[in-house]
Amino acid sequence: MFDVAVIEDAAAAEVSLDPMRARLLSELSEPLSATMLAGRVGLARQKVNYHLKSLEKHGLIELVEERKKGNVTERLMRATALSYVISPRALSAVEPDPAVSPDKLSARWLLAVAGRLVRDVGDLITGSTKAGKRVATFAIDGEVRFGSAADRAAFAEELATAVTALVSKYHDESTEGGRSHRVVVAVHPSTEGVRP
Fold first, then answer.
1. Which residue among 73, 79, 91, 114 is the one 20 to 30 A from 50 at the CA level?
2. Range of the domain at 32
């Protein structure tokens, strides 16, 4: 079971967004049968089986074990990940493109960049899983509290200068076998205490 999985297929995204199926996914962090799940979610076992078949068809859950109980075979299922992120690729016709409106101070542009990041990292995870390799990534996540808008603007300017200097220092077009990497740095207000 993965910590996080990226859903790239539109049909799988649709299945995962159904409230009951999302609830079943959350319950399936441990292997459970349809009968066990029925008691937890208050549905008939047949209804639970219907939802489980759909989740399994789209690779969101997997068979862990089969047990014979008299004439019945009990299937223990488990989610393939603890949590899921839906890639913009699942909505490819309307996925965000940062190049459409490249206003680097716009929250919507930042969201388009974040969408591209989810799509690209999802592609990398899918490819590396098939190849049996790890993806070399690096991320920094922190929080800073600014005393004023002027401090925030000064911070953004210094950060841009530092990142530009690092990119200039290490960027090398000439090395054969080198590999390009995307650098994404974002600063946005914290949502802590904002959302209900």
1. 91
2. 2-84
